[in-house]
Amino acid sequence: MSPVPRPRVMAVAAATLAVPCAVYLLPPVWAVLWAPAVLLAVAVLASPPAGPDVLGATGEDGLGGEERTHPAQGEARSTGTRVRTVALACAVEDHRLDFSAEVHWRWEGHVDLRLRNPAGPAVHAVVTRAAELARDVDPVDHGLAETALGALLAVERAVTGAGIVVWAQDVRLRLPDEDAERLRRMAALRKDRALREEIREAEEDLAELPPPPMSTASRAVSGPDDDEDDFEELAPFDGPDAAPPPGPGSDVDGEGYESYWWPAEDRTGSHAAEQDVQVAILRGLIDSARDAGERTAFARDQVRVLERSGFTQVASRLRGLFPETAEADADPHEPP
After folding, report:
1. 81 with 103: CB under 8 angstroms?
2. Cα angle: 101, vertex 105, 108; to 5 degrees
3. Please, what is the average pLDDT of the chain?
4. Phi/psi of residue 121, each to 5°?
5. Do residues 117 and 60 make contact, with C-beta atoms less than 8 angstroms apart?
6. What is the rounded distance in angstroms from the CA atom of residue 57 to the CA atom of residue 177?
7. Tens of pLDDT along 77-122?
8. How far is the CA of 294 from the CAs of 21, 180, 212, 278, 307, in angstroms?
9. Are 330 and 319 in contact (CB under 8 A)?
10. Do residues 173 and 128 make contact, with C-beta atoms less than 8 angstroms apart?
11. Helix, strand or coil for residue 234?
């Protein structure tokens, strides 16, 4: 006997046993009335219900449980089974995608008592469809693929030969932690390579640019070592130290060397400049003597040497700086 009409049969049997007992206790006048009442009760219990098509309820294991299916007219209730994480193949061989979802199912029109565990075919159908869709997914696009897969599996789909309709919710399609770390490293390497390519192309573009035009022919033939001189030439010559000293003088540089200068008097050209240098040097040598007599004797000797050598102009300028040399030369007792 099938398990669907079993409660009704038990009710009819109980009523059949209870009627004779009640008839025995009542007067014989009511015995005629109990027979129609019993028949009416049996007809009511044996008649099929006018409500739902499904008279019983089965759980996931077919023997009953907390999760039950009661689809009524215009209504579809279902059970939900959480699928544990399943590794699915993707478009790249050395990567995989972890899939999990909550699978729902319902009977398609009528209950098939031959199917003891409807949740099994439902989970198998959802995982198989997810594997087909994930086979063409690139690991980098697993986020977009998760959204698309959730939208596709949310649509009801009949399972062939099982008499049920399945769909899925809370779909997850993720990369394992080690694969996600590998993808991050590969992305960093691609960024570094792209940066190196951009730098190389920029250097090539700069190398192809023509050099800036030169203002003079001498700059056109100058080498890279003359760049610093070019900047010095372009610098303005209006500083406080740019103008030469207006008169004669001396100075000591940072290394301790003493220098002297004496501007030419109404003389132009390189010859006058050479005489100025000679006069400055001789003056420095004469001034370096400690004693006045020694300084006068040294100046007189220098004047004589210059006159004998033909540097009369230098000698005359030196006499103007040291008048005592002229007096010494005028002394008749001075040996030649």
Report:
1. yes
2. 155
3. 70
4. -60, -30
5. yes
6. 43
7. 556 788 888 888 888 777 788 888 889 988 887 777 777 788 888 8
8. 171, 97, 63, 21, 20
9. no
10. no
11. helix
Would you list the domain boundaries of the chain? Answer: 6-46, 79-175, 249-330
Q: What is the mean pLDDT of the segment spanning 224-233?
A: 52
Measured CA angle at 188 (ends 182, 194), to 5 deg: 135
Both tokens assigned to 314 = 């230098």
Q: Which CATH number fits domain 79-175: 3.30.479.30, 3.40.50.12780, 2.60.40.420, 2.60.40.3080?
A: 3.30.479.30
d(CA 118, CA 68): 12
Please name which of 334, 259, 327, 317 lies closest in space to residue 296, comparing C-alpha atoms: 327
Quick: pLDDT tens for 32-64: 666 677 777 777 777 655 444 433 333 344 333
For residues 130 and 101, is the Cβ–Cβ distance under 8 A? yes
Q: Which residue has the tokens 């729902």?
A: 104
Residue 311's pLDDT band, with cuts at 50, 70 and 90, is: confident
pTM value > 0.85: no
